[in-house]
């Protein structure tokens, strides 16, 4: 990957201000413009284009490229060059030995978090656009139960914001723990038990049937940021927090 980005790349992707660290993880993010995407960006930057993505829509290609390009930047920071971040049958990225990471995107924003496994055993990051009040009123029973609804209300969060936070946080939990559990688990596996707006985190009780085999015996804390009509959530677990 060249040190100087090609012009088509800078027209498509605008990196966020300098790379930041969250809980021992390097986080790289940026906004992108789907209408500025060109498939030739894969060749120009050396990002692998899987056949499944080659056959996908231009929008899907743009989202995939943005996430994988950020992953390449993050890996490069740690001295890993030209590694193809492929995915398994559940679309879970496969990282090089010694690293753990997570990728997420919306229609115009992408983010990647990466850490050495000597620092973290699990990491999940997720970004979502804030739901509209109308969508939140329709979707909440599919994402949270009545007790979780009450916790959101008690925290003085409007439903669309609270539900967006929960949705994103549960996605982050799934991304962090799926590599260890290796099977699908739904929103009901993580139950919201606390909201801390001052320190910007949510706490979840995770299903004992899923948590016990991988050595999790504590609530899961997911941190979040709200900005530009978007929520960004992340969870990380160190070597002493998970035994799988």
Task: Describe the fold and architecture.
- It is a single chain.
- 34% of the residues lie in helices and 27% in strands.
- It has 244 residues and is an alpha+beta fold.
- The strands form two sheets. Strands 1, 2, 3, 4 and 5 form a five-stranded antiparallel β-sheet that branches. A five-stranded antiparallel β-sheet has the order 6-10-9-8-7.
- A hairpin with a 4-residue loop joins β7 (190-196) and β8 (201-206).
What is the gist of this entry?
This protein is an alpha+beta fold. The chain is built from eight helices and ten strands. The longest helix has 23 residues.
Uncertain spans: none
Helical element count? 8
* Silhouette: globular
Question: How far apart lie the N and C ends?
Answer: 34 Å
- Strand-residue fraction? 25-35%
Mean pLDDT: 93
> Looking at the chains present, what oligomeric state does this protein adopt?
single chain
What's the arrangement of secondary structure elements?
Blueprint: H1 7-12, E1 13-15, E2 20-22, E3 25-32, H2 40-45, H3 51-54, H4 58-77, E4 99-105, E5 109-116, E6 122-129, H5 133-143, H6 146-154, H7 159-181, E7 190-196, E8 201-206, H8 208-211, E9 220-227, E10 230-237
List its traits.
5-stranded antiparallel beta sheet, 244 residues, 34% helix, 8 helices, 10 strands
